[in-house]
UniProtKB/TrEMBL annotation:
Protein name stated in the entry: ABC transporter ATP-binding protein
Tagged with keyword GTP-binding: no
Family as reported in the entry's similarity comment: Belongs to the ABC transporter superfamily.
Pfam families referenced in this protein's UniProt entry, alphabetically: ABC_tran
MF (Gene Ontology): ATP binding
Keywords annotated in UniProt: Amino-acid transport, ATP-binding, Cell membrane, Membrane, Nucleotide-binding, Transport
Database matches in Gene3D superfamilies: P-loop containing nucleotide triphosphate hydrolases
SUPFAM superfamilies: P-loop containing nucleoside triphosphate hydrolases
InterPro entries per the UniProt record, alphabetical: AAA+_ATPase, ABC_transporter-like_ATP-bd, ABC_transporter-like_CS, BCAA_Transport_ATP-bd_LivF, P-loop_NTPase
TM region positions: none
Amino acid sequence: MSSALLQLEGFCVSYGPVEAVHHVDLRVDAGEIVTVIGPNGAGKTTLLSAAMGLLPSRGRLLLGGEPMARISVEAMVARGVGLVPEKRELFGEMPVEDNLLLGGFSRWWRGERDQRKRMDEVFAIFPRLAERRAQLASTLSGGERQMLAIGRALMARPRLLMLDEPSLGLAPLIVREVLQVVSSLRQHGVSVLLVEQNARAALQVADRAYVLEMGAVALQGAASELLHDRRIIDTYLGLGGRAGEAATS
Ligand SMILES: Nc1ncnc2c1ncn2[C@@H]1O[C@H](COP(=O)(O)OP(=O)(O)OP(=O)(O)O)[C@@H](O)[C@H]1O
């Protein structure tokens, strides 16, 4: 089997004495959209944050088959991994363009000076952002803010984009629009690791899925098969497919 773009082996994350993610094995191959679904508190954000180097972890993380000796945000960004955090963390008092340019800063720092060209490529993916290039980020709609957060991460030209709950707080139609763009990223050479509570929407755009329950992988497989799995339907695809509501009610 060829080397995965990202591979986690026996990956564990703890908050003090409490282990929140237990021995997770996961892979994302080049060109894949992989989703991690699961109820509130399952450990999805913790897993993603630790895989980006924002939290300490145990176990192994390999990029392109090479184990990372130390997982830091700088090292992950330099190796072509980007994260769009759940809170989006935009600079509200800055226009769309400046938010995007800041996303390209790590490349600029390394001597690359083609940020304007890259911004035009991002605008081609998100035409709605191009129309609003001078608008302050704080005045964008929820969907536009999510697109800007993704666009900003794309400015660093990642090979793998990790997205934490891009559907959060968005109306169903907008969720579909945002996730369609996410699934189109592979045409631009970007693979995706998508953490979602909206199981139905995530399974509809992903190739493969992992179901995380209480910090451990409870189930995994082709997204198209999990969409028809009785256990997934009963637990996660109830009214609206909001995993947390189904699993905690
Ligand atoms: N900073 C923290 N300190 C201690 N425990 C934490 C911290 N952040 C999260 N946890 C705990 O770790 C577990 C996993 O939380 P996490 O936020 O990763 O879950 P999640 O699957 O992303 O949930 P949600 O979908 O609600 O965001 C939970 O039990 C949570 O209470």
